[in-house]
Protein backbone atom coordinates (compact mmCIF):
# COMPACT_ATOMS: atom_id res chain seq x y z
CA UNK A 1 0.00 0.00 0.00
CA UNK A 2 1.43 3.48 -0.76
CA UNK A 3 2.43 5.34 2.40
CA UNK A 4 -0.13 8.11 1.90
CA UNK A 5 -3.15 5.79 1.99
CA UNK A 6 -1.69 3.69 4.79
CA UNK A 7 -1.03 6.81 6.86
CA UNK A 8 -4.65 7.84 6.59
CA UNK A 9 -6.01 4.33 7.32
CA UNK A 10 -8.00 3.90 10.57
CA UNK A 11 -5.76 1.00 11.63
CA UNK A 12 -2.59 3.13 11.37
CA UNK A 13 -4.22 6.01 13.28
CA UNK A 14 -5.39 3.70 16.08
CA UNK A 15 -1.92 2.15 16.42
CA UNK A 16 -0.21 5.56 16.38
CA UNK A 17 -2.52 6.95 19.08
CA UNK A 18 -2.11 3.89 21.32
CA UNK A 19 1.69 3.85 20.91
CA UNK A 20 1.98 7.58 21.62
CA UNK A 21 0.13 7.25 24.92
CA UNK A 22 1.68 3.97 26.08
CA UNK A 23 1.37 2.72 28.85
CA UNK A 24 -1.69 4.95 29.44
CA UNK A 25 -5.12 4.10 28.08
CA UNK A 26 -6.75 6.00 25.20
CA UNK A 27 -10.51 6.42 25.46
CA UNK A 28 -12.79 4.98 22.79
CA UNK A 29 -14.34 8.42 22.30
CA UNK A 30 -10.91 10.05 21.74
CA UNK A 31 -10.16 7.43 19.08
CA UNK A 32 -13.62 7.89 17.53
CA UNK A 33 -13.04 11.66 17.38
CA UNK A 34 -9.57 11.28 15.78
CA UNK A 35 -11.02 8.96 13.14
CA UNK A 36 -14.27 10.86 12.66
CA UNK A 37 -16.29 7.66 13.13
CA UNK A 38 -18.54 6.10 15.80
CA UNK A 39 -17.21 4.10 18.77
CA UNK A 40 -18.73 0.98 17.22
CA UNK A 41 -16.68 1.60 14.07
CA UNK A 42 -13.54 2.02 16.23
CA UNK A 43 -14.27 -1.35 17.83
CA UNK A 44 -14.66 -2.92 14.36
CA UNK A 45 -11.26 -1.58 13.26
CA UNK A 46 -9.73 -2.99 16.44
CA UNK A 47 -11.24 -6.37 15.64
CA UNK A 48 -9.51 -6.18 12.27
CA UNK A 49 -6.22 -5.44 14.04
CA UNK A 50 -6.82 -8.38 16.42
CA UNK A 51 -6.99 -10.57 13.32
CA UNK A 52 -3.43 -9.40 12.46
CA UNK A 53 -2.07 -10.48 15.84
CA UNK A 54 -2.63 -7.34 17.94
CA UNK A 55 -4.16 -7.61 21.42
CA UNK A 56 -5.93 -4.76 23.25
CA UNK A 57 -7.00 -4.41 26.85
CA UNK A 58 -10.26 -2.50 27.18
CA UNK A 59 -11.24 -1.04 30.56
CA UNK A 60 -14.61 0.67 31.04
CA UNK A 61 -14.21 4.40 31.73
CA UNK A 62 -10.47 4.35 30.79
CA UNK A 63 -10.38 3.07 27.22
CA UNK A 64 -7.88 0.85 25.42
CA UNK A 65 -4.19 0.01 25.42
CA UNK A 66 -2.10 -2.36 23.36
CA UNK A 67 -1.04 -5.54 25.12
CA UNK A 68 0.15 -7.69 22.22
CA UNK A 69 1.80 -7.00 18.85
CA UNK A 70 2.28 -9.26 15.87
CA UNK A 71 5.60 -11.07 15.78
CA UNK A 72 5.69 -10.78 11.97
CA UNK A 73 6.31 -7.67 9.85
CA UNK A 74 3.34 -5.31 9.88
CA UNK A 75 3.52 -2.19 7.69
CA UNK A 76 1.04 -0.11 9.74
CA UNK A 77 2.95 -0.84 12.96
CA UNK A 78 6.32 -0.02 11.35
CA UNK A 79 4.87 3.34 10.22
CA UNK A 80 3.40 3.97 13.66
CA UNK A 81 6.86 3.40 15.19
CA UNK A 82 8.47 5.71 12.63
CA UNK A 83 6.48 8.61 14.11
CA UNK A 84 6.87 11.93 12.27
CA UNK A 85 9.43 10.35 9.86
CA UNK A 86 6.68 8.08 8.47
CA UNK A 87 5.63 10.77 5.99
CA UNK A 88 8.91 10.67 4.14
CA UNK A 89 9.40 6.88 4.07
CA UNK A 90 8.27 4.82 1.07
CA UNK A 91 7.82 1.20 2.05
CA UNK A 92 6.90 -1.96 0.17
CA UNK A 93 6.09 -4.73 2.67
CA UNK A 94 5.53 -8.18 1.16
CA UNK A 95 4.59 -11.62 2.48
CA UNK A 96 7.05 -13.25 0.11
CA UNK A 97 9.25 -12.43 -2.85
CA UNK A 98 12.10 -14.06 -4.76
CA UNK A 99 14.66 -11.58 -3.39
CA UNK A 100 14.07 -8.10 -1.92
CA UNK A 101 17.19 -6.94 -3.78
CA UNK A 102 15.72 -8.17 -7.08
CA UNK A 103 12.33 -6.59 -6.32
CA UNK A 104 14.01 -3.27 -5.46
CA UNK A 105 16.02 -3.41 -8.73
CA UNK A 106 12.85 -4.12 -10.72
CA UNK A 107 11.00 -1.22 -9.08
CA UNK A 108 13.93 1.14 -9.73
CA UNK A 109 14.02 0.02 -13.37
CA UNK A 110 10.28 0.67 -13.60
CA UNK A 111 10.84 4.27 -12.45
CA UNK A 112 9.65 4.12 -8.81
CA UNK A 113 10.63 7.24 -6.82
CA UNK A 114 13.67 6.55 -4.63
CA UNK A 115 14.62 6.16 -1.88
CA UNK A 116 12.32 3.34 -0.91
CA UNK A 117 12.51 0.19 1.19
CA UNK A 118 11.42 -3.35 0.28
CA UNK A 119 10.75 -5.80 3.13
CA UNK A 120 9.58 -9.40 2.95
CA UNK A 121 8.67 -12.00 5.54
CA UNK A 122 10.22 -14.71 3.37
CA UNK A 123 12.40 -14.90 0.24
CA UNK A 124 12.40 -17.89 -2.03
CA UNK A 125 15.62 -16.90 -3.85
CA UNK A 126 17.45 -14.94 -1.16
CA UNK A 127 20.97 -14.24 -2.43
CA UNK A 128 24.26 -13.63 -0.67
CA UNK A 129 27.69 -12.57 -1.93
CA UNK A 130 29.46 -14.66 -4.55
CA UNK A 131 26.21 -16.23 -5.73
CA UNK A 132 25.53 -17.96 -2.41
CA UNK A 133 22.04 -18.76 -1.15
CA UNK A 134 20.74 -16.66 1.75
CA UNK A 135 18.46 -18.88 3.83
CA UNK A 136 15.26 -16.80 4.08
CA UNK A 137 12.51 -18.70 5.89
CA UNK A 138 9.50 -16.94 7.44
CA UNK A 139 10.94 -17.24 10.95
CA UNK A 140 11.05 -13.76 12.44
CA UNK A 141 14.20 -12.63 10.60
CA UNK A 142 14.58 -9.53 8.50
CA UNK A 143 15.07 -9.38 4.73
CA UNK A 144 15.35 -5.75 3.67
CA UNK A 145 16.53 -3.82 0.63
CA UNK A 146 17.01 -0.06 0.41
CA UNK A 147 16.85 1.47 -3.07
CA UNK A 148 18.61 4.72 -4.00
CA UNK A 149 19.58 6.74 -7.06
CA UNK A 150 22.82 8.33 -5.90
CA UNK A 151 24.36 9.64 -9.15
CA UNK A 152 27.85 9.27 -7.73
CA UNK A 153 31.00 8.20 -9.48
CA UNK A 154 31.56 4.47 -8.80
CA UNK A 155 34.88 5.03 -6.96
CA UNK A 156 32.98 6.71 -4.13
CA UNK A 157 31.07 3.52 -3.38
CA UNK A 158 34.01 1.50 -2.07
CA UNK A 159 33.28 2.31 1.57
CA UNK A 160 29.49 2.24 1.29
CA UNK A 161 28.80 -1.28 2.61
CA UNK A 162 31.39 -0.85 5.37
CA UNK A 163 29.79 2.43 6.47
CA UNK A 164 26.36 0.80 6.51
CA UNK A 165 27.78 -2.09 8.55
CA UNK A 166 29.07 0.31 11.20
CA UNK A 167 25.66 1.98 11.40
CA UNK A 168 23.85 -1.32 11.76
CA UNK A 169 26.23 -2.41 14.53
CA UNK A 170 25.59 0.83 16.39
CA UNK A 171 21.85 0.40 16.02
CA UNK A 172 21.94 -3.21 17.24
CA UNK A 173 24.19 -2.22 20.16
CA UNK A 174 21.77 0.56 21.20
CA UNK A 175 18.69 -1.54 20.63
CA UNK A 176 19.61 -4.77 22.36
CA UNK A 177 22.70 -3.85 24.40
CA UNK A 178 24.78 -6.49 22.69
CA UNK A 179 27.60 -5.45 20.40
CA UNK A 180 28.05 -7.39 17.16
CA UNK A 181 31.36 -7.55 15.34
CA UNK A 182 32.07 -6.78 11.69
CA UNK A 183 34.02 -9.12 9.47
CA UNK A 184 35.28 -7.32 6.37
CA UNK A 185 33.59 -6.63 4.11
CA UNK A 186 29.97 -7.53 4.83
CA UNK A 187 29.34 -9.88 7.76
CA UNK A 188 27.83 -9.13 11.16
CA UNK A 189 28.90 -11.64 13.80
CA UNK A 190 28.26 -12.65 17.37
CA UNK A 191 30.96 -14.90 18.87
CA UNK A 192 32.16 -15.90 15.40
CA UNK A 193 28.66 -16.90 14.22
CA UNK A 194 26.92 -14.98 11.46
CA UNK A 195 24.01 -12.78 12.56
CA UNK A 196 23.69 -10.78 9.35
CA UNK A 197 25.03 -10.11 5.88
CA UNK A 198 24.95 -7.17 3.49
CA UNK A 199 24.74 -7.24 -0.29
CA UNK A 200 25.16 -3.95 -2.17
CA UNK A 201 24.39 -3.98 -5.89
CA UNK A 202 24.66 -1.10 -8.34
CA UNK A 203 23.78 -0.28 -11.92
CA UNK A 204 26.29 2.01 -13.55
CA UNK A 205 25.50 4.26 -16.52
CA UNK A 206 27.94 6.62 -18.18
CA UNK A 207 30.42 6.45 -15.28
CA UNK A 208 27.78 7.19 -12.68
CA UNK A 209 26.02 4.96 -10.20
CA UNK A 210 22.47 5.15 -11.40
CA UNK A 211 20.62 2.57 -9.29
CA UNK A 212 21.87 1.34 -5.94
CA UNK A 213 20.34 -1.42 -3.83
CA UNK A 214 21.59 -2.09 -0.32
CA UNK A 215 20.34 -5.48 0.91
CA UNK A 216 20.45 -6.61 4.50
CA UNK A 217 19.63 -10.03 5.88
CA UNK A 218 19.54 -9.89 9.67
CA UNK A 219 18.80 -12.87 11.89
CA UNK A 220 16.53 -11.17 14.40
CA UNK A 221 14.20 -13.66 16.06
CA UNK A 222 14.78 -17.11 14.58
CA UNK A 223 14.94 -19.64 17.41
CA UNK A 224 18.05 -21.74 18.12
CA UNK A 225 17.62 -25.07 16.40
CA UNK A 226 15.70 -23.64 13.44
CA UNK A 227 18.67 -23.55 11.04
CA UNK A 228 19.02 -26.28 8.44
CA UNK A 229 22.21 -28.34 8.04
CA UNK A 230 25.53 -26.75 8.83
CA UNK A 231 23.98 -23.28 9.30
CA UNK A 232 23.11 -24.51 12.80
CA UNK A 233 26.82 -24.18 13.65
CA UNK A 234 27.55 -21.00 11.71
CA UNK A 235 24.45 -18.80 12.15
CA UNK A 236 22.92 -17.07 15.17
CA UNK A 237 20.05 -14.62 15.71
CA UNK A 238 20.04 -11.51 17.89
CA UNK A 239 17.31 -13.12 20.02
CA UNK A 240 19.41 -16.25 20.50
CA UNK A 241 22.42 -14.14 21.47
CA UNK A 242 20.57 -12.01 24.04
CA UNK A 243 18.20 -14.83 25.00
CA UNK A 244 15.09 -12.72 24.54
CA UNK A 245 12.85 -11.99 21.56
CA UNK A 246 13.05 -8.56 19.93
CA UNK A 247 10.11 -6.40 18.89
CA UNK A 248 10.62 -6.94 15.13
CA UNK A 249 8.48 -4.00 13.94
CA UNK A 250 9.99 -1.50 16.37
CA UNK A 251 13.46 -2.70 15.41
CA UNK A 252 12.63 -2.48 11.71
CA UNK A 253 11.39 1.11 12.08
CA UNK A 254 14.61 2.04 13.90
CA UNK A 255 16.64 0.31 11.17
CA UNK A 256 14.87 2.19 8.38
CA UNK A 257 15.47 5.53 10.12
CA UNK A 258 19.13 4.69 10.70
CA UNK A 259 19.92 3.44 7.18
CA UNK A 260 18.25 6.43 5.49
CA UNK A 261 20.18 8.82 7.72
CA UNK A 262 23.43 6.92 7.13
CA UNK A 263 22.83 7.17 3.38
CA UNK A 264 22.37 10.97 3.60
CA UNK A 265 25.60 11.27 5.59
CA UNK A 266 27.39 9.10 3.04
CA UNK A 267 26.23 11.30 0.16
CA UNK A 268 27.19 14.49 2.05
CA UNK A 269 30.61 12.96 2.71
CA UNK A 270 30.60 14.12 6.35
CA UNK A 271 30.92 10.51 7.57
CA UNK A 272 34.58 10.32 6.56
CA UNK A 273 36.03 12.07 9.64
CA UNK A 274 35.46 9.25 12.12
CA UNK A 275 34.65 6.34 9.81
CA UNK A 276 37.91 4.39 10.21
CA UNK A 277 37.76 4.76 14.03
CA UNK A 278 34.21 3.48 14.05
CA UNK A 279 35.09 0.54 11.84
CA UNK A 280 37.96 -0.39 14.16
CA UNK A 281 35.55 -0.42 17.10
CA UNK A 282 33.65 -3.34 15.55
CA UNK A 283 36.38 -4.97 13.43
CA UNK A 284 36.79 -8.63 14.50
CA UNK A 285 39.81 -9.25 12.27
CA UNK A 286 42.27 -6.55 13.35
CA UNK A 287 45.44 -7.99 14.87
CA UNK A 288 44.39 -11.56 14.03
CA UNK A 289 46.02 -14.07 11.66
CA UNK A 290 43.78 -14.43 8.63
CA UNK A 291 43.74 -15.93 5.16
CA UNK A 292 42.25 -14.02 2.23
CA UNK A 293 41.10 -15.79 -0.91
CA UNK A 294 41.29 -13.62 -4.02
CA UNK A 295 39.87 -15.82 -6.75
CA UNK A 296 42.06 -18.90 -6.44
CA UNK A 297 44.99 -17.08 -4.78
CA UNK A 298 45.41 -17.37 -1.05
CA UNK A 299 47.15 -14.66 0.97
CA UNK A 300 48.00 -15.22 4.62
CA UNK A 301 48.92 -12.52 7.11
CA UNK A 302 47.87 -10.44 10.07
CA UNK A 303 44.87 -8.16 9.53
CA UNK A 304 45.74 -4.52 10.20
CA UNK A 305 42.31 -2.95 9.65
CA UNK A 306 41.16 -0.91 6.66
CA UNK A 307 42.48 2.13 4.83
CA UNK A 308 40.53 5.28 3.88
CA UNK A 309 39.19 3.57 0.79
CA UNK A 310 37.84 0.59 2.70
CA UNK A 311 40.52 -1.82 1.46
CA UNK A 312 41.63 -4.54 3.89
CA UNK A 313 45.27 -4.27 5.00
CA UNK A 314 47.31 -7.42 5.67
CA UNK A 315 50.90 -7.74 6.90
CA UNK A 316 52.60 -10.89 5.61
CA UNK A 317 55.17 -12.92 7.55
CA UNK A 318 58.00 -10.82 6.07
CA UNK A 319 56.48 -7.67 7.47
CA UNK A 320 55.26 -6.34 4.11
CA UNK A 321 51.83 -4.69 3.91
CA UNK A 322 49.27 -5.52 1.22
CA UNK A 323 45.90 -4.01 0.47
CA UNK A 324 42.89 -5.87 -0.90
CA UNK A 325 39.78 -4.37 -2.44
CA UNK A 326 37.86 -7.67 -2.55
CA UNK A 327 38.14 -11.24 -1.34
CA UNK A 328 36.89 -13.79 1.12
CA UNK A 329 38.51 -13.73 4.55
CA UNK A 330 38.72 -16.50 7.11
CA UNK A 331 40.23 -16.31 10.55
CA UNK A 332 43.09 -18.79 10.94
CA UNK A 333 42.48 -21.57 13.45
CA UNK A 334 43.36 -20.80 17.05
CA UNK A 335 42.99 -17.01 16.65
C1 LIG B 1 26.03 -12.19 2.41
O1 LIG B 1 26.36 -12.32 3.59
O2 LIG B 1 26.57 -12.89 1.53
C2 LIG B 1 25.00 -11.16 2.03
C3 LIG B 1 23.61 -11.61 2.39
C4 LIG B 1 22.54 -10.60 1.99
C5 LIG B 1 21.15 -11.14 2.19
C6 LIG B 1 20.10 -10.08 1.98
S1 LIG B 1 18.52 -10.59 2.53
C7 LIG B 1 17.80 -9.18 1.80
C8 LIG B 1 18.48 -8.99 0.46
N1 LIG B 1 17.86 -9.83 -0.55
C9 LIG B 1 18.68 -10.77 -1.00
O3 LIG B 1 18.39 -11.63 -1.87
N2 LIG B 1 19.87 -10.67 -0.40
C10 LIG B 1 19.90 -9.58 0.56
Could you characterize the architecture of this molecule?
The chain has eleven helices and 14 strands. With 335 residues, the chain is α+β, with helices and mostly antiparallel strands. It starts with a helix and ends with a strand. The model has no long low-confidence stretch (mean pLDDT 94). The structure holds biotin. Biotin is lined by residues 99-101, 123, 126-129, 132, 134, 143-145, 186-187, 197-199, 215-217.
Topology, please?
Blueprint: H1 3-7, H2 10-21, H3 28-35, H4 39-51, E1 55-59, E2 63-68, H5 75-82, E3 91-97, H6 100-109, E4 116-123, E5 142-148, H7 160-176, E6 181-183, E7 187-190, E8 193-205, E9 208-218, H8 231-234, H9 238-242, H10 248-268, H11 272-282, E10 289-294, E11 297-306, E12 312-315, E13 321-324, E14 328-331
Helix pairs in contact: 2-5, 3-4, 5-10, 7-10, 7-11
The structure holds biotin (BTN).
